[in-house]
Structures are given as C-alpha cells and as structure tokens.
C-alpha cells in the first residue's frame, strides 16, 4: 500500500499518511470535494457508466451522434465521452436547428434533425438521471432513505468531519459535482443541518448570504459553545432537487415532488426539450438566473481554497472538469493549503505518459510538482470512498461509528415504553 501514497512526489508509509491526515483535520478549515466515484458504492455511476448506459438504452444513439459530428469513432473506442459536455453540445445544436431549419410537415418528425436531436437529448437526460437516483425509481422520495446501509459511509464522513472541529474553527465545507442526494439524506438521518444556499419554509430559493450563516446552541456557555451542528454543502453542478421553470428563480423542492413532477415523466419517455426544468450540466446552464447560482458556488469553492490553514480532501473526482482543475491548480499559490487526492488509477499513470487522457495528465502534473502540499493516494480500492472515510481519524471523544444512531434509538425506546427520563 505504501507504494501508492505520495507526498511531494515521494512515496510515504501508510502510518505517516494517517498521521498527516490527522493533523490536517485539525486545521482551521477542512473541506472535501466529492465526484461521481463517491456515489458508485451506493448505486451511482461513473461518467463512463453513464455513457455506456446511454448507448445501451438506444441502439441508434451512436450512429446519430456520429452523423451530427457530436463524437468521433476514437471517442467511442476509448469510452472517453463526457456526457455533461455532450448534453451541452446537443442542446446548442438543437437551438440552432430550431431557429434555422423549418419543419417539414409531410415528413415524420423523428426523422428530421430537430426530432433526432430531441431523441438524443432525452436519452442522455435519462441516463444522467438514473445515475443520480441511487435508489430504485419507486422508492426515490421516500422518507428515511439516509438510514439505508448503502449510505453508511456518507453518515460516517459527516460525523467525523464535524466532531473533529475544535473551539472557534469553521464548520466543514462539502463540495460535490454530483446531482444525487446522498449527503442530504445522510445528514437528515443523523440530525445534521446542511447549509446549501437555499432558504425558505414553503418556497426554498437560493440566497448566497446563507453560506455566511451558522447554527449554534444559544444555551451553551463558555467552551461548550464551540460545538457544530451543521456543515456547508456546495453542489457545483446542480442537484436532482433543484428546478427552474420559465426563467424563474432557482428553487429547491422535496425529492418526492421532484420525482412525481419531473423525474417520473422524464424516465417514462416524455419529451423534455422546452419542458426540462431540472437543473443539469452544460454551458447552457450559465444562461439567465442559473448562472448566478453556479457562479456563486464556484466563487465559494475558490474562496475556500484561498483561506489560510486549509485542507481539501478529494475523492471520487476524476479531474474531468477543466474549470475545477484550474481552480485547484491556481489555489496552490496559497502556501498553507494542503490537498489530499484519492485517485484509484494512480498506478496506471505513474510510469508511462503516452496516451494519457486530459484528466490523467492533470493528475500526473500534480504529482510531478513535488510539492509537500500535495498528497496523492492510489492503490485501486484503497482509494475508494469507503477507504477514504475510514482513513479520517475519529476524535478521542467520539466513541463508535453508530453512536448517533444508538442514542436516537435509545431515546425512542424510552419514549415508546412510557418510561420517564
């Protein structure tokens, strides 16, 4: 294992790494960046998985994409299609064709360019959505989903990050490129508030000043006041629970409502163009008011990395987003920033530089910088999400993995039995 942990470009032992990670968790600011790989263990898909699902759903998809020059044969052979970028391209093509190509009433709609592009768009939207459900379509929106065993490590991550905070330190920062609700469900299960920029009782809208607020116990005095009851969540690419109808404000809605009003119709094959109100990736998302929301999320990410005494731990992110990569590389100018990257395929790029993809080149560049600020963990499954969470140390006063659940269960048993505390 030690051969796959590098700090400053030099291999270090697992014990040294655990000691280093323990020190980082005590810094003034601690954050995590999670990508698709962090949700694979609980039912999600990697970008490659989304692409394979899309082409399996529609046998004509590859031919149509090639016809429109949206992908190349090399993309197909290497399975390196970025579905997020593809969604953006298809949307742009569709917009152009609708404006410049009149519909032929005598010809079948699905055989015309606009019809073909709408069919492609529907297929891609369906695959992206299925990847983010994490649970089966029927149960999405049910209560207590966060209690499922598949979200065990998401619950543990939140508990460890919050309980490691010291008096006067900031609450943990969570950044994710995922649309799924794994973190929200896990936090709800263990009673942790997530500040995600949205506020409101009946209508939750985005207000950036929410990220400057925090929760505390007003009855606690002295040192007891330091305890955190919350974490900050920044969804850099949107969420299954965000919607925008007819250029209105971005709203966050309950998952059950998102399922019945938007997700079910989409997965059942209803046409989506001009009626797709779920927030999805692509450059077109920067139009209108949604640009404000995404811009604020990325600004907060960049601002966090520029703070003194800061650590960011990256897991499940494949470095396929140029904008995020640029922010991370630029943040290395902060001398007190520490970055820990869990990258399972590290051994595949540690020797030969030929034929590397752009994301792999970025990892190779980070490793070759030989900065003590950068620690990279490889080793296949040793860098997966569950292993990453196990590496995060427990504070001395944090007894067991199930402490929160045990306490809640004990109180419920007392209440149900009629005993008085």
Automatic annotation (TrEMBL):
InterPro entries, per the entry: SIR2-like_antiphage-assoc
Highest taxon of the lineage = Bacteria
| Pfam families named among the record's database cross-references | SIR2_2
Name recorded for this polypeptide: Uncharacterized protein
């Amino acid at each position: 294992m030690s051969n796959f942990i590098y700090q400053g470009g030099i291999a270090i032992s697992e014990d040294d790494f655990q000691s280093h990670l323990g020190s980082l968790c005590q810094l003034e600011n601690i954050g995590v960046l999670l990508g698709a790989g962090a949700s694979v263990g609980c039912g999600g898909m990697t970008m490659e998985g989304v692409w394979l699902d899309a082409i399996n759903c529609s046998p004509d998809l590859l031919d149509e994409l090639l016809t429109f020059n949206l992908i190349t044969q090399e993309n197909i052979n290497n399975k390196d299609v970025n579905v997020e970028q593809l969604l953006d391209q298809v949307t742009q093509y569709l917009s152009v064709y609708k404006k410049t190509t009149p519909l032929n009433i005598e010809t079948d709609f699905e055989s015309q360019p606009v019809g073909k592009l709408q069919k492609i768009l529907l297929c891609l939207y369906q695959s992206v959505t299925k990847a983010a459900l994490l649970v089966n379509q029927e149960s999405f929106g049910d209560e207590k989903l966060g209690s499922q065993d598949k979200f065990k490590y998401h619950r543990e991550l939140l508990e460890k990050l919050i309980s490691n905070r010291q008096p006067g330190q900031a609450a943990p920062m969570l950044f994710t490129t995922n649309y799924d609700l794994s973190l929200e469900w896990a936090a709800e299960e263990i009673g942790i508030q997530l500040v995600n920029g949205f506020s409101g009782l009946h209508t939750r809208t985005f207000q950036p000043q929410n990220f400057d607020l925090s929760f505390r116990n007003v009855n606690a005095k002295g040192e007891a006041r330091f305890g955190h009851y919350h974490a900050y969540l920044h969804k850099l690419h949107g969420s299954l629970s965000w919607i925008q109808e007819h250029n209105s404000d971005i709203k966050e809605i309950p998952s059950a409502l998102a399922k019945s009003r938007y997700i079910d119709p989409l997965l059942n094959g209803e046409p989506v163009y001009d009626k797709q109100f779920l927030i999805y990736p692509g450059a077109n998302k920067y139009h209108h008011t949604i640009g404000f929301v995404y811009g604020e999320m990325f600004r907060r990410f960049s601002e966090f990395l520029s703070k003194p005494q800061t650590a960011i731990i990256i897991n499940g992110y494949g470095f396929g987003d140029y904008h995020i990569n640029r922010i991370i590389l630029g943040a290395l100018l902060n001398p007190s920033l520490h970055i820990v990257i869990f990258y399972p395929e590290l051994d595949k790029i540690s020797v030969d530089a030929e034929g590397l993809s752009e994301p792999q080149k970025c990892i190779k560049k980070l490793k070759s910088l030989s900065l003590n600020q950068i620690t990279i963990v490889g080793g296949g499954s040793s860098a997966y999400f569950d292993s990453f969470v196990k590496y995060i140390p427990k504070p001395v006063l944090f007894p067991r993995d199930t402490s929160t659940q045990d306490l809640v269960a004990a109180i419920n048993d007392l209440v149900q039995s009629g005993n008085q505390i």
